[in-house]
User: Fold these one by one.
Assistant:
Number 1:
Amino acid sequence: MQVTARNVLKGTIKHIHLGTVNAEVTLEVNPGVEITAMVTKASVDKLQLSDGKEAYAIIKASHIMIGVD
């Protein structure tokens, strides 16, 4: 797999919550560190995503914001 994104995090799928059209896929990239992505249900099927499967969080963003209280 080759991508242009600089932030690629390998992890394990912990949970998939299917909605009507989309799905929330939660990936554990380190113990206790999770990232959740919104994807289409078609993508879940095409990539054969399931709990326990290894996958990658590929993050490509032009802006990342940080906030504090």
Number 2:
Amino acid sequence: MRIRIEKGACVGNARCAAVSKELYVLDDDGYIDTEGFDVPEGMEKLAKYGARACPEKIIYVEEDDGTISWPLKKPA
């Protein structure tokens, strides 16, 4: 699993880091400090919780098969 982040769209809510400071590292100004990372084995649930905590929905959960499981697509 991989996490992709639209770093430039981060507004500094820091809710992702409140869920996991290990995975969602912030810079000195409180904004996300990465554009993404591979999720370490055993930390998948925590990574998903952190992504879902973002009110801006700029954190994407990319599954091993390449599909995006978060944020959910709205029906057409």
